[in-house]
Amino acid sequence: MPEPARVLVVGAGPAGLATSQQLQARAVPHRVLERGDSVGHTWANLYDSLTLHTGKHMSNLPGMPFPHSAPLFVPRREFLEYLRRYALAFDLPVETGYAVERITRTDGSWTVRTSRGEYAAQVLVVATGIVANPRIPALPGQQSFGGRIVHSVEYRRSDAYPGRRVLVVGVGNSGAEIGSEIARAGGKVTIAVRSGANVVPLTLAGLPIQYVSYWVRTLPRAIQEAAVGLVRLLTELRRGKPVLPRPAYSPLDAIPVIGFHLVDAICEGLIDVRAGVAELTADGARFTDGTAGRFDDVILATGFSAALAPLGGLVQRDQGGFARRRERVVSLDQPDLYFVGHNYDATGGLYNIKRDARLAARLIAGQLQRQ
Description:
Elements: E1 3-10, H1 14-25, E2 31-34, H2 41-44, H3 76-89, E3 94-96, E4 100-106, E5 109-114, E6 117-126, E7 148-151, E8 165-169, H4 173-184, E9 188-192, E10 199-200, E11 203-204, E12 207-208, H5 209-216, H6 221-239, E13 257-258, H7 261-267, E14 271-274, E15 277-280, E16 284-287, E17 292-294, E18 297-300, E19 325-326, E20 330-331, E21 337-339, H8 349-370
Parallel strand pairs: 1-2, 1-6, 2-3, 6-21, 7-18, 8-9, 8-18, 9-14, 10-13
Antiparallel strand pairs: 4-5, 5-6, 11-12, 15-16, 16-17, 19-20
Helix pairs in contact: 1-8, 4-7
């Protein structure tokens, strides 16, 4: 028989740890399953230079602020240490080395099959994030390409790229940071931009743009758009016209590129900008504007989708690939199923995790008390 647990949390990254801490604060018995060999497994395997572009005051998990000595924008290694200290400080019930393979629901309860056995649970919280599910497009001609193709999740550092011709496909924050880092390390970088990019400053009047966004989003939409227009105007007065095409959507509707590292590298002639990729060839790529280039490496900075594979067809996905939900965290498709770490906007993924962990734990505790 599957080993029983009243509440089971899948994932021990920021979302799973925050949820566990909040469940524990409400005296809700639970267990946390983590596929890696330690908490924060995903953060331990992201690229070395990654730094939060959200400020530390809105990036901490419930119950533990960052120390005063921490920089305003916390580097990856320091954030990983923070996650490990967090789990120890609250003595969270995390069990590592349990990769969740399949989740099923029968007779009013959940069965979670892992690499090390099965668990049964009354309530399930999916806190698996997005990094475990990279979007990898099938580019025409990629079978004939003679170079290396990797997703941005596989990138670690720039020392493998000096002197190499690198095509970065996609212009989100990962693509912008990786492309500019490789270019400054001596790689010859081209970035393929299909629909454009909204670029905003990392800070505004000394405040992280995330903090500004938080307050702006409390205002009516028309005033929000006016604020976006003012930031754009001030940026152009200081830096000149944008070097990247602007997309049809507003920075309010999708996470923009935060900071000017990519823009600066383009202006300095370190990065070439091309249109979207039409196809890969044996020695490079052709672009939708009819031009072509030769490349040794292709890095797919094409983003991520929610890591929901173990649930199979038990839940439906929205347009962004996330499970359909009500009240931010409650499954629309299945009873006793919650999601934390599935809300992303310009106020920051970590800020939303803190908010949603509190909400999910409160709802779960109330549900169990009524039963």
